[in-house]
Design a protein that fits this description.
This protein is of the alpha+beta class. The chain is built from 13 helices and 12 strands.
Length: 403
Amino acid sequence: MDRLLETFKLAIITLRANKLRSLLTMLGIIIGVSSVILLISIGSGLQTYITGQLQGLGSNSLYVMPGNLDFQGGGSSGGTPGAGTGILKFTLNHYRELTQKGTTLQAVMGYSENNGTVSYAGRNKTTQVAGVGYQYPQVRDQYPIQGIFFSLSQQEAGKKVIVLGKTAADDLFGNEDPIGKKVTLVDNKFTVVGVLEEKGSFGGVDMDSQVFIPFTTAMTTFDVDKIQSFWIQAKDDIPIEEVKAEVKKILLRTLKEDDFSVLDTGSLISVIAQILGVLTIALAGIAAISLIVGGIGIMNIMLVSVTERTKEIGLRKAVGATPKIIMTQFLIESMVLSVTGGIMGILLGAAGSLAMRSFLPTTVSLWSVLLAFSVSMIIGVVFGVLPAGRAAKLNPIQALRYE
């Protein structure tokens, strides 16, 4: 133990004698470890944020999406994940069948998204135009603070009426009352009937910058004959699985199982969690490549160090140092470089995660720290073996004669 401690001290002294070189050698490890920790932290924070947003929609909400989004075997078909094409196949007939034949459905709302520029008196705002149903305030719990939301009759007739998000109203009208005014959207005049209360962002989209028109009007305005998705609110006290079964039964009369997915809030959270999980692992794996680069850097510098210290190695062997002691010394030097770089990377990653908290609820998980630290130790051993082995095999007489 005393000999090992002495070897460790000697390794530290050697590395401190070349501080700049040691720091540059550790740079790859520092960047790799900090990147892995930061990306895992961001992925976890993003998942927490989106989960919180979706849970706020309520447990009695359903979303009918195009394609097969079943990752659990409990979605639309129980088939292969992602087997659906995602081609839009929902029509107004599907909407009418759901509203007329759905006995467990409280509200059915067609939904579409398009980008457009809304203009008024020389002011322009390019934003997301949401085609929604008249039940939008009820389904999303967001009500007008000025005017009203459009009605069922206006939706059925495809009237050119528009409801503005609070930010959109402020940008276009300032202090002017927008109710009853005409705005231009895709060369069409729309009458402003309401302004919604502030909602903030959802899934990275600023809800207050959006504008809302009847989804039937959106179909004619943007020249499409399909509805992108349905938002459904189930009746109170009816099990959500019973509601999902009824929705599927109605749609399967004219569609195939792989044409759509019916997701409740829990299923949607599960799907998004899996997608984000895979994405986080992929990004962390890409960041981990720099750890390998860092390990190669350590090996390269240690090989240079062996060459520079050939005489020192020969002298130590001449006075009794065994190959094992020499190999241990160089392995310890390699591990000190790697582990020190790992610790600095952990601190840098944690600082980055803390800085990101103003945007996402990021946290540094214990498992990511342990993983990064373990990998840095393994790299120190793996990439230190070759230089240490070369040092241990040096012939003492030839080493002493080395110039």
